Structure formats: C-alpha cells, structure tokens
Amino acid sequence: MRAVELFAGAGGLGMGISKAGFTPLKVVEWDRWCCDTIRENRRHGIGVVGHWPAPTEGDVRSLDFRSYEGKVELVSGGPPCQPFSLGGKHRAQADHRDMWAEAVRVVREIKPRAFIFENVKGLTRATFATYLAYVLHQLTYPDLVRRDGEDWLGHLERLERHHTAGGVEGLRYNVVHRVLNAANYGVPQRRERVVFVGFREDLGVRWSFPQETHSLEALLWSQSRSNFYWERHKVRLVDRNLDARAYARGMSLPSRPPTKPWLTVRDAISDLPDPEYFPIEAGEEFNHRLQSGARSYPGHTGSPLDEPAKTLKAGVHGVPGGENMLCRPDGTVRYFTVRESARIQTFPDNYRFHGSWTETMRQLGNAVPVRLAHVVAEHVAERLKKAS
Description:
Elements: E1 2-6, H1 12-19, E2 23-29, H2 32-43, E3 56-57, E4 74-77, H3 100-110, E5 114-120, H4 129-140, H5 152-164, E6 173-181, E7 192-200, E8 214-215, H6 216-225, H7 228-232, H8 244-251, E9 260-261, H9 265-269, H10 280-285, E10 303-304, E11 325-327, E12 333-335, H11 338-344, H12 357-366, H13 370-387
Helix pairs in contact: 1-13, 4-5, 6-8
C-alpha cells in the first residue's frame, strides 16, 4: 500500500507507518536538519527509511499533490503542534505555524482511502474546544473549502450546517480521534498525543483504536508483588527504589493485571554503556556522548530510572532539562544522551540524527514514538486490506 507523509520531522511517524506495510511515494519536511537526518539514514539503507524516496525539503503550502489522486491509500503526518503545545505560546489558529488547513488540502487533492494525523494533547484542552471541532469538521468534509474573505468561525458555521443537514455531497471521511498514552502501547515514556484517523466513507469501514497492551498496574505488580522487575534487572534489595505510595498501590492490587507492565527507563537503556565512561569518539559515532550541565531543582527533577520517562520535549527556548534528564536512584541527575532519548522514542539503534545535541533533542522531542505509530498504522492497514 502506498502513502504520502507530510511534516515528517525526524521520521518517527513515517517509520512506524512503513513498518505497518505502507510504502511512501513522497516524504515532505521543511526543516533542514530533519531532512539531513532522513537523508543520512536513507543513504546508509537503515531500516525502512532505506527504501524511502529522497525527502522533499520545502513548505507544504508550495506543493501540489493532485498528481497523486487515486494512487495513494494513506496520507499521514503531524501538522506543526507548537500552536497547541502546553509548552508553547498557545496561539492556536492565530499562529502562522498552524498547518491543519494544509493537511486538509492534501487530503482533498489526493483523496486517499484513509489518513492518520497526530498532534499534541494540548489541542484537546478546553481552551481549544471550538478549534478542535473545526479541525474535525474540515477532516470530515475536506471538499467544503473556506471561501475568500471567510474567517474560520464562519467556515465552521457552514460546516456545522452541512453536517446537521446530513450532507452527503462531495468527499467525506468518517473520523475518530483519541488521546493515546504511548506508555500503554509499549513505549518507555509517558507521552500523550491526540491521534486522528479517518476512512473514506465509501469504504464502509468500521474501526476503533487498538486496545492498550501495557499498564501502570502491571508495572506496580511486577515491582511490588512478584518482584520480577527487580530480579530481571538483577537489582539488589537495598537498591530497589520505589516510593511508598507506589508500593502501597501495587500491594493493594487484588490480582495480576492481564496487561504487560509499562516499560521503564531502566528497561530502555540499562544495556547501554554508561556515557560518563564511554570514549568520546565512540560516543559521537553512536550518538551516545554525555552532555554536561544537568542540575536538579524543584519542578526540574528528571525521569526516575524505574518509571517510564517523562515526555521528552523540544522546548520553546531550547531543551527543558527536567524532561530530558535521568534521575538516578541516589538522586543525582544527568542529561539523557541522544541514543538514550532515541531508545525512549523507540527509534532503532542504528538510526542517526544530524545536528548539535540541542538540535537533535529538538528533533526527538517533536517526534512520534515509532512503536506507537506502528501500532496504530498496523491496525489501519489491516482494515484497509479487508475493505479492498
């Protein structure tokens, strides 16, 4: 099955989609460093990216996609999320980086059988409720285009009237959206993203998001009741660091949960060499060089080793170290290396990132975990195959 990937970033969403069986015909990203990252991995034939076309480095707004009509099963991408990010300036539709209208235009021009778009959880905040409704209505009726001189609220009113009238004219998609926590799908990070999935109405597809496979309760069981977590990692009893509330919650569980345990930072990085003692040359080659300067203070404490990582963030003014630091059991902290952050985002170990540490961490902070993208895309692919 064929796809078009928009706003590709460092490739996390696209890699997950490719692993689910989609072959991208076009990959679009405006950021030079992200394109360099994709180009580097493509040149070396790394994973699914080795089979991608060369990325189109440019602004989606300047590109015409009509030549792909009838040739593509899936359109996917993450429209720039800074307008809605909790860490950003929250300007939403007033922000020039809001690319939702372009995502809708590409769907209108290509008419794919399905689409997958993702964004930050902040888009679902009460403050943005009206704009979220606008996004959903546009995705449902991409042919109902905003008129010259019409503001977005006027366009929303027209979309609402069309919807309540049972409008069936033109292109229509059945759209669902949900906030997904990546930790619940086997990603060692508590990362919540809102995912939009739409199927073209003529396919008659019935679809829902895949069931969660991992849980906090299962992790607490393995740490408090069975001790399997500690035994697997060969952690001595004296070194087992679990706060009293988590221990009490685990001990109160009446039975072993049916799901798998959340994955932790220790699960993700324990087999990597300590970057404080790793040779600098090797660290540079493997994106595993130590970045100095980490410090802890209230509200800026890092990710505990025996929990899923906090959400890695790109930051408005550089990288906020609290979310991108490791907190050891003894309370000391250090920054995650690029390779450790890539592990937390479930990128393969041979995937290399271009740019400085801060630039690379920006790419990772903006990325979709590869595993989360794969789980959703695989579920979509299965349904499309049945509908064909």
